[in-house]
Write a structure and sequence with these properties.
Layout (H helix, E strand, L loop, with lengths): L2 H5 L3 H12 L8 E3 L9 H16 L4 E5 L9 H13 L8 E3 L4 H13 L3 E4 L3 H8 L16 H13 L8 E4 L14 E5 L13 E3 L1 H11 L4 E5 L6 H10 L7 E5 L11 H9 L14 H7 L3 H11 L10 H15 L2 E2 L1 E2 L2 E6 L8 E6 L9 E6 L2 E5 L19 E4 L4 E9 L6 E9 L16 E2 L2 E2 L4 E8 L26 E9 L11 E4 L3 E5 L8 E8 L3 H9 L1
Parallel strand pairs: 1-2, 2-3, 8-9, 10-23, 12-18, 16-19, 21-25
Antiparallel strand pairs: 4-5, 5-6, 6-7, 11-22, 12-15, 13-14, 15-20, 16-17, 17-18, 21-22, 23-24, 24-25
Helix pairs in contact: 3-12, 8-9, 12-13
Length: 563
Amino acid sequence: MNDIETRATDFIRQIVADDMTAGRRDGRVHTRFPPEPNGYLHIGHAKAICLNFGIAQDYGGPCNLRMDDTNPETEDEEFVDAAKEDVQWLGFDWDRRLYYASDYFTRLYDCAVQLIKAGKAYVDDLRGDEVGQYRGQWNEPGRNSPYRERSIEENRELFERMRRGDFEDGSRTLRAKIDMAAANMNLRDPTIYRIRRFPHYRQGDKWCIYPTYDFTHPLSDAFEGITHSLCTLEFENHRPLYDWYLAQLDFQDPPRQIEFARLNLTYSVLSKRRLRELVEDGSVNGWDDPRMLTLSGMRRRGYTPAAIRNFCDRIGISKSNSVVQFAQLEDAVREDLNQHSPRVMAVLDPIKVVIENYPEGQVEEMDAVNNPEDPSAGTRKVPFSRELFIERNDFREDPPRKYFRLAPGREVRLRYAYFITCVDVVKDSETGDVIELRCTYDPETRGGYAPDGRKVRGTIHWVSEAQALKAEVRLYTPLFSEEFPQDTKDEQAYKAAINDNSLEILTGCRVEPSVSGSAATTRVQFERQGYFCVDPDSCDTKLVFNRTVTLRDSWAKIEKKGK
């Protein structure tokens, strides 16, 4: 078995391998990732990025990054910069092969003129609604436009006047002359150019006519020498048009379009248009809101490039649409973070503990393991004192069955420190709420082990009150409360599924001092809590952490079942 055969692990790679073996396109492999710069890239784009750059790497070819920027009303340099950052963050490099469809405007115009000269395109005076009426339905043929049989000379003149700006927006279009009775609606004289007076973010006011995506995309692929044009399934019915343009313009050895299933993820909306709506109506705090499945939002939340690449590899490439469970994405990030994240003790809902028999003013340094999955990560020193904070839910005045944490008269282990026993409870005189726990410790149990061999069932984390750092912690859950928020014909119905509790902000949290000065995007595991990331909102006076993903919590499941 040769190297090409061993690489083929999905149907697209098999096609590429077969093409190489057969010597098609001189045995070359050249792919591209072509986002439209009209919004930030999301997890669905990550699948396409990994596929296009991954195939290029697997078969020793290049991969271009191309901005498909032919719609001036929605595109912006901000989105270009964001796309470049996201691709690089994922771990891929286009190696100076950054292209813009807008740089091809003159060549595209010349190709359109070539179609006119060949009698394959005409200027149409029908307006948008009229075009729809003439187009027909999927089960009935369309009708020829009354302007379809204009002469080549007239069409050339009118198209030139369109370019000069002689006509108002929407008054005329350039259409391909194919077949108004075609079963494939995309072949019923599709639009090639439309008049749109809107400045382009790169070209300025140079153009008042813009090519359509269906015309631009195959030609851009051909201009760049792309061999395999990988698209999602919604473009499958566009492939005959893709091939028609390339054939009519006589491109030799043209690119081959191959379609694959896009990513559909539960509890999510993966559409730049709808993500833009969420940003613009204030449902989220910008494109990089950690609740957004944009790559910038995921980066801010603490997802790692490796986790996203592994996720894309696990879900694979298929020809049929399916739905991936959000839990699979969380599993991928949890697995990666578990391997590489240093451990930290943090108390998110503090209750004070005073160890009555511990010397006042004394501070010890306890050895704590940085990462049990990585012995080379070593240990750190964690300060221990008479007054501590523990989690409020690590104490129950009246504990239920199978609850092994702190309770009156019960002994538990403090992680890396001592055994303590609760001897008294201090309550607020007005509310009756527990505000402080009085405990004793066994000085013989330093490190968490008793010389007499006695066992305790519960181990809890803690921080020293005097040395702990104050922090704000942001807890995120899915932005949508319904599993399939887009599963409706109503375009705006997905907004009704927005989870009003997708963000919970905790103030007054306490974190061990080892995280002092941590830079933005620093990832850690809060022991027994989950994985967290330092947010860019952090400053010298305030630490802010985003929860990336939770740990599996067996006690939470027990409590849920008991309700």
